[in-house]
Design a protein that fits this description.
Layout lengths: L1 E2 L29 E2 L30 E2 L14 E7 L8 E3 L2 E8 L4 E8 L5 E9 L18 E2 L3 E8 L2 E8 L4 E9 L11 E3 L2 E6 L6 E6 L5 E6 L10 E5 L2 E8 L2 E5 L6 E6 L10 E3 L2 E6 L5 E5 L5 E5 L9 E3 L2 E5 L4 E6 L5 E6 L9 E3 L2 E5 L4 E6 L7 E6 L9 E3 L2 E8 L6 E7 L5
Parallel strand pairs: 3-29
Antiparallel strand pairs: 1-8, 2-16, 4-35, 5-6, 6-7, 7-8, 9-10, 10-11, 11-12, 13-14, 14-15, 15-16, 17-18, 18-19, 19-20, 21-22, 22-23, 23-24, 25-26, 26-27, 27-28, 29-30, 30-31, 31-32, 33-34, 34-35
Length: 440
């Protein structure tokens, strides 16, 4: 492990194919593993967060809903900007927030380093940067992906980082001060376009998934030691979705879509609870919950959004999709920000379309609900804000920062944190913005 203070120049990634490459490491031949007794799980205290923390992908409930904040609906380079901080390297990792710090992954393409960065939330200044890997970069990488696209997760005491390196998926546990506490190889990975799934924390475990053409896996690791508590083989398809723990009829389930299926697992043992044919081969979005149903969408090459009850019964299906952006569910309604710039609202109970509106742009980020407003950033760095209303599309604001947007925002203490890139000066640079009302 090495701690870096500065990083050098940035080189854009090229998209190359993985054809003709040798087989991936044999760790990909995943066998079903369950070792609950081998974990230190029972002795770990539950993860605890302040109401204004943003501890993982899409926030406290992994659903893109911020309940404790009110943030501006309009901003510019000079309006409602608390601070702007230049970030080292390149990454699509979305920010997470615990207490007075913001944490992200980043990668330096020239130096071939993958690292975790801590930022002071009051000032935007770097607190520390810890390098996890040097070398081992993945060659088969889509030009819209990066070597640091997974969003971190935290249990309030540790950070959990996922990286694809040397054709393997690795999970590292770090202290909040940047010390790498453990590192676990979870399995080999046959890349088609790179890796982007994010981990989640559930009780004593860190749960992660890695779907790929040679047969991926979903696994639960002890968050104190990195020990693999359980691991289950997944179908052999290239897919990119992150798992999510949902509670249906009082039972917690890990749900993930992709590989032409929607699967539910027991989060403590990895035992499959149910499996449904649905969505399509490749998906990216994270499941959402409305009432007592889980709703998923995808992807490529097909298109389907479907709602499933706690037993695996399909309640409705529609030939509609969000491929990269996740869905947003609120108050019995489902909001889709489709990749091609069309916003839609569906009745979450029936799948019936209530309205659609062409917003324009192309989208790779997931929508965020703050109060009754939805925020979503397109690939050019423009954030559109509109009302979460089932009756019609109502535009509230359009806000441009930078020239490129791939990371979804985080919210805390009436401030919004947005990672964008800017190449308007002839050189691509990444920035983290803190957006909020001026401090009086």
């Amino acid at each position: 492990m090495q701690r870096l203070v500065t990083l050098c120049g940035i080189v854009l990634l090229a998209c190359v194919t993985g054809c003709g490459r040798p087989p991936i490491p044999q760790t990909t031949n995943i066998q079903a593993t369950t070792d609950v007794q081998g974990a230190s799980a029972a002795n770990l205290p539950p993860a605890k967060f302040a109401p204004d923390d943003w501890p993982g992908w899409r926030g406290p409930q992994y659903d893109g809903v911020a309940t404790e904040s009110v943030v501006p609906a309009t901003w510019s380079d000079t309006q409602n900007i608390v601070w702007k901080s230049k970030l080292p390297g390149r990454g699509h990792s979305s920010p997470i927030i615990v207490g007075d710090r913001i944490y992200l992954e980043t990668a330096d393409d020239a130096a071939q380093t993958q690292s975790v960065l801590a930022v002071n939330r009051a000032t935007g200044k770097w607190v520390w940067q810890t390098t996890i890997f040097e070398g081992g970069f993945e060659e088969a990488m889509h030009n819209e992906n990066t070597q640091a696209s997974s969003t971190l997760a935290t249990d309030g005491e540790r950070l959990f980082a996922l990286f694809l390196n040397d054709r393997r998926i690795w999970c590292s546990g770090l202290s909040l001060e940047g010390e790498e506490l453990w590192r676990q190889e979870v399995g080999g990975f046959r890349s088609r376009f790179g890796y982007s799934a994010s981990p989640l924390v559930y009780q004593s475990l860190v749960i992660l998934a890695a779907d790929h053409d040679e047969g991926g896996f979903i696994a639960g690791l002890d968050r104190a030691s990195g020990h693999i508590v359980w691991r289950r083989k997944r179908p052999g398809n290239s897919s990119y979705a992150s798992p999510r723990v949902v509670t249906l009829s009082g039972r917690d389930q890990v749900v993930i879509c992709g590989c032409k299926q929607v699967n539910s697992y027991d989060p403590l043992t990895g035992e499959e609870l149910w499996s449904v044919e649905g969505t399509t081969e490749s998906t990216v979005g994270t499941p959402v919950v409305s009432g007592n149903t889980v709703i998923v969408s995808g992807g490529y090459p097909g298109a389907e959004t479907l709602a499933i009850d706690n037993t695996g019964k399909v309640l409705w299906r529609v030939k509609d999709k969000c491929y990269v952006p996740s869905l947003l569910a609120a108050n019995g309604f489902l909001y889709l920000m489709q990749d091609d710039g069309i916003a839609k609202c569906l009745d979450a109970n029936t799948g019936k379309e209530l309205w659609k509106h062409r917003v324009g742009g192309k989208y790779r980020t997931s929508p965020l609900l703050v109060g009754d407003l939805i925020y979503v950033t397109d690939m050019s760095g423009k954030t559109t804000v509109f009302k979460a209303s089932p009756t019609s599309f109502e535009l509230v604001g359009e806000n441009q920062l930078g020239t490129e947007g791939f990371a979804s925002p985080a919210v805390s203490r009436n401030q919004l944190f947005l990672r964008v890139a800017d190449d308007s000066g002839g050189r691509r640079e990444e920035f983290l913005y803190c957006i909020g009302e001026p401090v009086k």
